[in-house]
Amino acid sequence: MAPKICFSGNTATIKSEGTSETLTKKAGIIYKLPDCTIAHITGKVEKKEIKEYQAEVIILPTKQAEQIITKLKPKLAILCGDKEAVYTARELQHKTGIQTIAAEDNLVVDLYAYSALAEQKSLGKFTTKE
Fold it and tell me: Which residue spans within the chain are E strands per DSSP?
C-alpha cells in the first residue's frame, strides 16, 4: 500500500504499511516511514529550527509556507488551515517550483500519485543467498 495522507477538518491522518518512527518537535511532528519522511508543522517555526523539519512531504499552515518551502525544498508541500489555500498553493508552486497543493476536508493524498515518492526501489538493499 502506498502511503496516504487523509484530511478531515483540522486533522491529518497518515496511513502506511510497515514500521514508522514519530518525532515530536516544538512546532510539529515528523513521521519517518519506510518509504519517506513527512513533516507536519502545526505552529510557528523559528528560523534556526526550520532545517529540523526536512522531509519529502511537508504539511504546513500558509503563514510561513513560502519561507519553509524555499528553504527545505520538499518533493510535495501541502497547505492547510486557510480558506484561500488553493490560491496560495498555486502561487507558491509558481514561485518555488515545488509541487504544492491545498488540503481540504476529506482529501486523500496518495504520495505515489503526486510523485512525492520514488516508485522504483533500489536493488542495493537486497542481498543474495549463497
Answer: 4-8, 11-15, 21-25, 28-32, 37-41, 57-61, 76-80, 99-102, 108-110
Domain that holds residue 31: 20-104
Per-residue pLDDT reduced to its tens digit, 43-60: 999 999 999 999 999 999
Q: Is 34 contained in some domain?
A: yes
pTM (two decimals): 0.81
CB 34 within 8 A of CB 47: no
* Closest to 67 measured CA to CA, from 30, 40, 95: 95
Q: How many C-beta neighbours within 10 Å does residue 76 have? A: 22
- In this prediction, residues 57-85 reach a mean pLDDT of 91
Q: Which residue has the higher pLDDT, 74 or 105?
A: 74
Predicted local distance difference test score (pLDDT) of residue 20:
76
Segment (H or E) for 96? helix 85-96
The number of domains in the chain is 1
